[in-house]
Amino acid sequence: MSEFTAFPLLASIIDRVSLKGYTQPTPIQQACIPALIDGNDLLGIAQTGTGKTAAFALPIINKFGQNNVEIKTKSTRSLILTPTRELASQIMQNIDDYAEGLGLKTKVVYGGVGRQPQVDAIEQGLDILVATPGRLLDLIENGDIHFKSLEVFVLDEADTMLDMGFFKDVQNIIAKLPKSRQTLLFSATMPAEIEVLAQAILTKPTKVEITPQAVTADLVNQSIYHLDKSNKVPLLFDILKTPEHQKVLIFCKTKYGADIIVNALEKASITAASLHSGKTQAVREEALQNFKDANLRVLVATDVAARGIDVDNITLVINYNLPEDPRNYVHRIGRTARAGKSGAAISFVVENDIRQLTNIENSIGQVIPVVTEQPFHKEFSKAHIAAKKKKATKKPSRNSKNHKVTNAKKKRR
């Protein structure tokens, strides 16, 4: 299937997709959309950046657009549960774009903002609700929402829910949902807890797996810069002195570190802002919107705050610090390879980072080239590198295929 027009979607949805500049579906969209239109449960193993929001949103919008029913008070026809406020907002924005003109009632709810407008919207009944676990549990416990009319449940970024400590909350929410529903579970990885959950909540699911190599190997020009820790800021300035990259996302380890980098950039007259959990929700939303609108050249983020960032035309990702978890490396660099576009990713590596780097390379199944023609290059001790690599966890390379799909019989409800 090579065009969105080949899907049995409403003409208005096809038009909205086209207006966003998309004509050819990504592999996950090719696999998911027909299965979801058929009513199947689905297990999607895919990271952000593969087009999975449209993969689940378009069939839901299509279903409700074709079957506009009277919605009961304090209820929703679908629930999309996602870990972070930023990701929830972005999913809602995409849904509203795709659903324009269909008259669907939608709302996003999360903590850190006033709850009364959220309660008032749910009181009227919703077609689509996007929520984070904490605020949704608060609404449930206060009797502000019920799920008697729920038709579709989407659990997005399940492994991130686990990493962020939301897994118990997710289980409590699922216990409140009706058994008869269409269920979609998306996760970038499949730790044991997620596998058990998938078996418990999915019925004869279609399985779609998009491997990280589709992003890391083919679309992102990756490179390593060896240097001393004291030269990180000077190297950052050297990279940014050329106008080639006008939208740059920098990842660092800590909230404090993110603010230090921003202060240094602002002193050099480079527009920048930080994105981390120490900021209020209003400040985080303002920073992200300014970055989307190109009012900021640089956004400096921690992993948790940046998970699921969907911003067009990021041309460069810089790993100011390497992530401890190799999975986060793939999530990070995927910010610059959205919807089939290419980009660049530079990782700053000091001598003590060799073990982390080796784990990352084992995880993605490739050796990332080192750039020596840069002003702060440092030759590392070969003995030190060998010792660090020996300690690194050995991981087998992933299957090189872009994706695999297992079809299941259509589930009738």
Automatic annotation (TrEMBL):
GO MF annotations, alphabetized: helicase activity
Region of interest (Disordered), residue spans: 384-413
Biased composition (Basic residues): 385-413
Residue ranges constituting the Helicase ATP-binding domain according to the UniProt record: 33-208
InterPro entries tied to this protein: DEAD/DEAH_box_helicase_dom, DEAD/DEAH_RhlB, DEAD_box_RNA_helicase, Helicase_ATP-bd, Helicase_C-like, P-loop_NTPase, RNA_helicase_DEAD_Q_motif
Keyword Nucleotide-binding: yes
Record Pfam families: DEAD, Helicase_C
PANTHER family linked: ATP-DEPENDENT RNA HELICASE RHLE, ATP-DEPENDENT RNA HELICASE RHLE-RELATED
Protein name stated in the entry: DEAD/DEAH box helicase
Gene source species: Colwellia asteriadis
